[in-house]
Amino acid sequence: MISLETYIFITILPPLFVCLITPLLSKNENLRDALGPVGGIISSYGAIEIFTAVLEGKNISIKLLQISDGIFISFDVTPLGAIFGLVASVLWIFAAIYSVGYMRGNQEKNQTRFYTYYAIAVHAALCIAYSGDLLTLFIFYEVLTFSTYPLVTHKQNELALKAGRLYMSILVGSSVIFLLPAIIWVWILTGSLEMSKHGVLDGYLNYEHAPYLLAMFAFGIGKAALIPIHKWLPAAMVAPTPVSALLHAVAVVKAGVFTMLLVLTNIFGIDFLSKTGASIWLIWLASFTLLITSIIAVYKDDIKARLAYSTISQLSYITLGGALASATATQGAILHIVTHAAGKITLFFVAGAIYVGAKISKISELNGHGKSMSLMLLAFFIASLSIIGVPPMAGSWSKFFLMLGAAESGYLFVLIVFSISTILNAYYLMEIPARAFFLKKEKEIKVKIPVLITIPTLCTCLLTIILFFAFEPFQNLTSIMVK
Amino acid sequence: MTDIIIKNLPILVVLCPLMMSLFVVLIPNTFISWVVTLFTTLITFIFSLLLYQEVYQYSSISYALGNWIPPLGIEYVIDKVSIIPIIIITLISFLTTFFASKIMPAEINNSSISKVYSLWLLAIAGLIGLVTTGDAFNLFVFLEISSLASVALVAMGAQKDKQALVAAYNYLILGAVGATFYVIGVGLLYGITGTLNLADLSSRITEINDNKALVAGFGFMIVGIMVKAAVFPLHIWLPRAYAYAPSAVSVLLAATATKASLYILARILFSVFDISDTLITLTLTYVILPLSIIAMFAGTIMAIYEKDIKRLLAHSSIAQIGYITLAFAIGTKASVAAGFIHMFNHALIKGALFMAITSMSFYLNKRITINTLSGLGRAMPITFSCFVICSLSLAGVPLTAGFISKLYIIKASISAEGVWIALLILASSALSVIYLWKMIEAMWFHEGPKDLVIKENPTVYIALLMITFLNIYFGLDASIVVNSSFEAADQLLGVQK
Predict the structure, then answer these.
(1) Can you give the pTM of this predicted structure?
(2) Most buried one in A284, A339, B111, B360, CB count within 10 A?
(3) A77: how many CB neighbours lie within 10 A of its CB?
(4) Do A66 and B477 touch (CB under 8 A)?
(5) How many pairs of residues across A and B have Cβ atoms under 8 Å apart?
(6) d(CA B41, CA B86)
């Protein structure tokens, strides 16, 4: 019988091993490329076990070492963490297979280095998911930033290096200037960095100071990409598509909103927030971010840039859900992490497939090429429906809960914001398959998409439908979180 | 036998390097003189560890020199406070001696090496003596022993660069002024109280009210020690001395010399005089606090604009000394403890950074400036990794020792003075990232010369690895340092008279 704590290691260690072994196998490409999917399967096994255990109400926590009074390196699985860990590890399997197809199909250089850092990034994301205190969270948050830098600058040309500098300066700068001091502030107030289900600040933090501390967290967590610290995400799109897909649609940005939600629920506590109104300004800022970036997305011609702005807007749904400080909205926010991840990774997979298969990266060049890659564009269509929130796709659930939460807490303008954004979503996402299927072709292109790209894309696309029907465990878990 | 050693530990820890320094000078062979020196520093370190145990058993050890009972005779006192600088000095001097094996012969003529090691041990003996003695005049004697030995060591750098003579001369003059100020202060206090024993002094001072001579004596003592501790703006001897001393000497001095003086400063402020005294409160809030804040920024900004790396690190030391004096100036138990924590951690950090730079100049065989750093990161991966880790530690990144120091300094300053000092500390450490990044960028991202091939030598990097390991270890398990520092602060401020 394996103890529950062991499953934490079964989940977080495989990517670390993959990262350590990959450089040794740089000569044997097939073996090297098989490591990722195998690691993903082992990780997912652990994550599923943890998921079910948390669902049964079990407590999984482990203290690795004590640094000083109240400062630990520890893991403690919250329901939110169990969900994020499951999402990151399961999608890693598909992304790992997809990377092989993409990197080979595109004949990229330095593939060994790519897989090495890719695995560290996944490791960091999983450690963030299960971290039991703010310091552990912060450390792996930074590991995630630094490990994705070589991936963003993978092409090593002037453009990539410039984007890399922007990426690092925003993410590292915001976390050092705001997040770390905010964490220290919490430590000074409460004498500990541990989190608790109902928040730890009640009774310690002066109500008037609460919005400022929250602001330090909100702007410190640059990965959640609120305006005006969102610029790093479009910049990161110079990376190869598997990076954009797993990291900048799932692991990195979800680590950001995950941290944000964790801070809102387990540091401040929903009750504390609704009592003090500390997060009202965040509702406005998130709504603003959500609308503006949806509008910007409409004007982007580059597929990946459009998807990036769409991601920023969707991240703000999650932040907004947390900031509303009601149980239902928080549930919706957590669920949106899952449903958006499945949908957005599919969209990026398709964008990458189009690039590898037809060397097209602009939407305006897609006209009429629908027939030659109909399967991929169908997947894009289905995933788009999920992001927009049409049943029977998974995205409809989370949007439903978010809207219900907004209505419950009495913020009617949030409902309007959601509706406008949904219309915009529909417009900028549907334009892509519409152009490909209905407009006239300008010139013939020979399209060849590797099978290693097609299969994972179809799998994640299927996930968006399966999740609609297999929704109950997620919903149960979120209700444990907010109870 | 062991019984006698244990009983005489407080004097042995001073006598061991002092006696051996007289012996080392007679050894003609350079290697043997190094081995003897290394052995001596190791023994001294072991003695200090035994002392640590003793101190925590008895809380305070008093040793009457020559069995002349204090306050008439000279007393050596080792308590939970003084054990911290003792451990720092002995630990660092052991590691640096180990490190010096290859470095020293590269810069010093074979014929002078045994003399250098003799001075080396003399300086260490002086520093340890400074910390252990409980007698104000004996303290002056050790202050002079350590300064004169250090001056001579700095002057040995002249074999490579004549600038060292100027640096040593500066150091000598300012050091002498500092020591004279201190001894004038001691004289004045002796005139009023009639005692030289520090503990006795402290109890008699409380009986004296409103005496101008007392104020003058205190002022002279404090200024004298502040020169030695390189508190801004009395630091001007330091950058030059560190930059032109033989490299191994820079490592030793940077990590230990000012720490001993800082300890004396704390002793005079909190133990000889009394924190509740208005004189001390005024000194802390209107002299030391503002000076520390200026030092934090001035040191950092000078470091940003400095091209010569050893000088850059020296400027950075001034800023770091500013953190320590700032912590003392706040004057609460938590802040004094934070000062001691940073004293220990900074010795590890700065020692390691100087070691890394010294190794680089050893292989290149020239002075290290920001331009000569190009490409060294790739040519010397081990040294470079250590340098990066210790830079992170200096910047205060979690999981390194530097993080613990910053954390406790910030916590103490917030709970005592409010947020503004904490903000200044954060701002200054954010600035420090600039000069650290400047060096790392040059090492890793700039193309080095084509013919740059370096084979790293284990005898050079093992000591560096050890001290880097300590940087990480004390970042992961800070309980020993933190607890000892809090115990020290308790003992230092505990008895409020």
Answers:
(1) 0.85
(2) A339
(3) 27
(4) yes
(5) 37
(6) 12
Domain locations in chain B as residue ranges: 274-497
Under a CB-based contact definition with an 8 Å cutoff, are residues A336 and A284 in contact? no
Helix B113-132 × helix B9-24 angle, to 10°? 160
Q: Where are the domains of chain A?
A: 4-482
As given in the structure block, the two tokens for residue B97 are: 């001696």
Cis peptide before B71, with omega less than 30 degrees from 0?
A: yes
Q: Do A66 and B415 touch (CB under 8 A)?
A: no
Residue A64: closest CA among chain B residues belongs to which residue? B476
Q: Which of chain B's residues have a Cβ under 8 Å away from the Cβ of A67? A: 404, 475-479
Q: Which residues are registered as beta bridge partners of B61?
A: B78
Highest mean pLDDT among B171-175, B191-195, B199-203: B171-175
pLDDT digits (tens, 9 = 90+) for B426-442: 888 888 888 998 888 88
B401 neighbourhood in chain A, CB within 8 Å = none
Confidence of residue B495 (pLDDT cuts 50, 70, 90): low
- CA B486 to CA B341: how far, in whole Å? 9
Cβ contact A68–B426 (<8 Å): no
